[in-house]
Amino acid sequence: MPKPADPVLPLLKGTLDFLILKALSFGPMHGYGISSWLERQSRSEISVDDSALYQSLQRMEGRDWVSAEWGTSENNRRARYYTLSRRGRDHLRVETATWLRYTRSVTAILSLTAREA
Amino acid sequence: MSVYRRLFRLRSRADLEMDQELEAHLQFCIDDLVRGGRSLEEATQEARERFGDYESARRQLHRGARERDAAVESRDWLGALWSDVCGAMHQLRRARGFALMAIVTLALGIGVVTMMFTLIERILLRPLPFPQSQQLVMLTGRDSLQHSVETVSAADWRDWQRDSRTLVSTALHIRGRRMSVASDAGAVRVNGQVVSSDFFRVLGVRFLAGRTFDSAEVQRNEPVVIVSEAFWQRQAGPLPQLGMSLRIDGQTRTVIGVIRSEDAYPAGTDLWIPSAFSREGARTNINYLAIARLRPGVTSAVAAADLSRIAQGIRATDSRALYSYGVGVAGLQDSLVGGAAGYLRLLMGAVLLVLLIVCANLATATLGRGASRTIEMAVRSSIGAGRGRLVQQLLVEHLLLALTGGLLGLAVAALGLRIVLRVWGAEIPRSGEVQLDAGVMLFAFGISLLVGIVAGIVPAFVGSRVSLRVLLSNGGRTATRGGGFAGAFLVAAEVAMAVLLLVGAGLLIHSFRRLLLRDLGFDRAVVAAEVTLSGVRYDDSPARRAAYWNAAVDALRQLPGVRAVGVGNWVPLGFAGSSFIEIEGSEIPNTGAGYRAVTEGYFATLNIPLLQGRSLAASDVEGTPRVAVVNRAMAKRYWPGATPIGKRVRATSMEFNADGSPAPWLEVVGVVGDVRHWGLEGDITAELYTAARQVPRWTTAMTLLVRGTIPSADLVAGVRHRLAEIDPQVPADLSTMQSRLDGQLSSRMLTLSLLTGFAGVAVILASLGIYGVLAHALVRRRRELAVRAALGAMPRQLIVQVIWWAARMVVPGTVAGLLGAYLLTHLMAAELVEVQPADPLSFAAAVVALLAVAGGAVLIPAARAARLDPARTLQAP
């Protein structure tokens, strides 16, 4: 997949965790799969630092938000597949609601300022 | 070592896995990039760049992976525990019979232990409700034989108070008596105490209202009184009103203080009246109880040495100080609990045995069940479950059972306590303080944990030793020999403990039977009405008192169904005084006899037979020659081989004269039968009866006795009514001799009932154990039995085989139990009457009882063995 020409958006702190959880809510994926899924879904606006991705996965596995298992990919390669756990799903639901409320408010305020100006 | 290896292994596995994961990632990425048109080299480069500095990212991820694995592992342990709990629930649901049996036995065992612990903690261990109560002591005298004498003389006590260096303070009081409190509503009888001025200061009682006695006011003999809160609430409503007047025993007294009912000492006292104890001069007048508070840091032994030194000084100057051969100092709490401590400890020991049997039973049942679970366990162990894991699973199962049992046990304890307190509350000292509280619940919880662990660990270790290889090599038919042996051993131990308890219960039952067979010497179908004549009307008028007793006797005799009426100052099964006596022509110094002042109707009413001479008569009045009647024991003791009729005796202490002149001689005119004044458990003592009409000084507090042709309980109301008619201001305490006797026997009944109950539980549990092991053995060895049956063994021989298995547990257990009983029963000698601790009858009865119940447990498996169908058994997989 080609690297985007424009400078990509830096990831807001703390959002990586639930972006990964969101990705896994569509089904089990391996690390690279999550990374490319995020790039694809953001139309390459967001790029994930792979090191940060794995650290996040380790942290969430420790917290029992995701679980991992070795499996085989379509092209017959062994990969560690991550699955969303029940607690991860709960966490994702809460975080999503909070994030949406937050961004709606921020967006509303920012739009308002623009109109007055 | 293992810890390091574990860490090392953990590290290498986590790192390796991380590397594999990263490698896969890079490969995916490179594939994508190559597909997008990069060269392999460019793609490799770029894939690594997406990690930033690849090597440092990799090191960081290694560390992260190790932390993650540690977190997951610890979560897995909790998860395993949880899955054990779920598994245990599942197992127990599957083995419903086992779980039910286990929980019921546990509830019983934990329940009785908790109940006994509560009683003991509250009664024996919990300090009295006074500040620094461990410094409170009771002071007692010693006679020339160094026997402890509970009561002391006021003169000795005053010397101790003056000269001691070890006491902070000390006080005197008279053994409680009933006092009458008159009001407009009528008169009531309450528990009163006459105490010295420092009484409440010694105890350190905090006053709810008002103040304690002032020594100057006591010296001036001012009419004051202190009452308990409970009395106050009964009398005057909830609002304490100091300064209010009460008419107590005919004298008007002002209430100066109120104390909490819990602080009432002795417990249950309603009111306290002060006395300077200044008129009770003689050192032989020992009718007082002494309490004291020791100086901080002073022990009872040091105080006893200090006070004994003073007592020796008294002895050196006064030859009549007969009870100053030493002073005993004992903790007030121990003195209060007294005899109850013995039987409570006995019962606690019994209850611990029951708990041990419960543990053994549960362990045996688990072993038996273990046999059917052996394959499951072995399979699990072969697929990699560690031994620790298997032990943990069994432990979890047993803790679950034990905690459930413990919870039910609390209910059993609460129920048991309620029954014990309802039936025996009056006989148990401090019973008002008994209740289930957080401490007791904690105790029950602790016991449950302990039982769960003990009963779980034993089978876990025996059971998890089985290897799948051994199991499969004999076709899954045979469990471990070890399991079978451990089960039999545990059951033998249960049998031994049950036998021990049975012997203990048997000894008590045998004692009780001997007690009931004793002759009291008097008729117990008699109503007793205790009456005290006091106040201005009676205090200085022996004639008015005599008139009252005459009127009362006449009135009661008129009652329908009444056969005889008599009066005595001290009557059987109640408090009584003894006198020093002097036998004319005898040199026996300082001898004594029970002293009773009675009317002519006394012996006929109690059905005490006249053996010799004449009885007392209505004509024996003041002014005629003094006469007395003695009992057979007194006649034998003081005039052995001779008739006492016509001999003379005098009661030197009970009839002492304030002017110092000697007590009058009494001529013995008759001999009557012996009575057990102190009840069935007491001994027969020498008794001297004087004519009440000749000793007006003893006619203030007397007991009217009424024997009827109808049941005595039905007479009570009529007696009360008639007495109220004579003088409504004089209340009476009514009881029947039978109820007094029952009261005396009730603590023995309590011990007996509880111990018998515990023994019964023990035997049933042991029998369950026997049954379990036999049933298990039958399953385990059914093929062997079937082969023998196929080869022509008669059912009778198979039954014999089962009985033989049972005998191998029961016989050694019984022998061990009898041996243990032989070694231990002397500890309960104090509870036994006329029965030796090694009483062969009780030992034999224990064996018979055990065999009878155990026989039932053997019968079912034996019958099953006899019905064994060889063909079907051998064809079964």
Q: Your description of this structure?
A:
- The complex is a heterodimer of chains A (about 120) and B (about 900).
- Chain A has about 120 residues and is α+β, with helices and mostly antiparallel strands.
- Chain A has a three-stranded antiparallel beta sheet.
- Chain A contains four helices and three strands; from the N terminus they run αβααββα.
- With about 900 residues, chain B is α+β, with helices and mostly antiparallel strands.
- In chain B, about 40% of the residues are buried.
- In chain B, β16 (about 580-585) and β17 form a beta hairpin.
- The chains are: A alpha+beta (about 120), B alpha+beta (about 900).
- The interface of A and B includes residues 51, 59, 63, 64 and 79 of A.
Short description:
The complex is a heterodimer of chains A (117) and B (877). Chain A has helices at residues 15-24, 31-41, 50-62, 86-116, and strands at residues 29-30, 66-72, 78-84. With 117 residues, chain A is α+β, with helices and mostly antiparallel strands.
